[in-house]
Structure formats: structure tokens, C-alpha cells
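Hi R.,

Here's the chain you asked about this morning:
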Amino acid sequence: MLRVLPVAVVGLALALCGTAATARQPRFLPLANGNRWTLRDLETRAATTVSVRTQGKAFVLRGFPGTSSLRVRRVQQNIQAWDRAQRRWESFLRLGARAGTRYGVDLGDAFLWQAVEVRVASKRADVRDYHGKLHRGCVRFTLRYRQPIADAGLEQLSFAPGIGLVRYSDTSIGGPRTSALAAARIKPR
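And the predicted structure, written out as C-alpha cells:
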């Protein structure tokens, strides 16, 4: 009995340390009701707004690149999206995955998120926002479509710790475009 007690105490201490370390990890997409990001096209200055609303135990992202409205939830450091066509949660943004990780996303009701291969290109990217401010330690994703999409498609998404989406690039009929964070309203955790 005396030998079991120290092992149990050490095990509990390690579990608590792991939980504390996870809690301290930066959130790369802060999900809270009312959070919003305004991104501006670097050439045309056109604004895009991404916002978060609470929906039960999940959240709704409005205006996120490649979709008008998307129900999401956090699972540790990752974001899952609800696929209405398949009626299941699907891995969407693996913000906690290692650099080099590749995975597929196939959301039936979000055209630019169908049959796409996502790669965690960097976990330590330096990314500039619309005003030129440098954000260090960003997670950058690259996207590649399994089936070519004529004149459309997302190419890159970058997320800054504690801030969220700071930059994305896509292709349109007018050619490649890049939008960067111009303003954000983020509630503290």
C-alpha cells in the first residue's frame, strides 16, 4: 500500500502538469461570442469580416474564407467543423498538429472546403498584418485541391497566437489575392 501511494501521487502530479501546460498553450483561433476579425485585401482594400456567435455548445463562424457560415467547436488545440451533408464533426483546422502534417477536409456544403488537402506548412511563421505589424509564431496552412477548381480556391491561411486569422490568400477569376488583418475584437479567455 505504501508503494502504491507514491506512484499514484506522482501520476496525479504529472496529469495535472499536463493539463496546466495544455491550458497555457496559445489559442490560434479564439472562439468566443462576439469575437470578430476584419481583413482587408492588400490591393483593393476591400474588407472581409469574420465573426463568432455562440450556438449551444458550439460556435458559428460567419465570413470565414471559403464559406459563408460554418458551425465549429474546439477539441484541444484543433477546430472541428460540422459537416451537414455527412451529419458528423470533421477535422477542420489542426492548429495543434506538427509542421508537415497533411490531412483531408471534405465539407459537403462549403464549396471551397470540398476535397481539399490541408498541410500545416509552419508552426513558427512570421506574418505581417494589413498595417505591417509582424506577428511571430504563427501557424500557416497551405491548401491543395484534389480536383482542380476553375478560377477559385484558397491557397494559404495564417493564424497568430492569441489573435486568430491574420492573413489568407486565395485565387479568383481576377487572379491571386491576399487579405490581412486590419482590426480585431477579441474577448479575453
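Residues 1-23 have pLDDT under 50 and may be disordered.

Let me know if you need anything else.
M.
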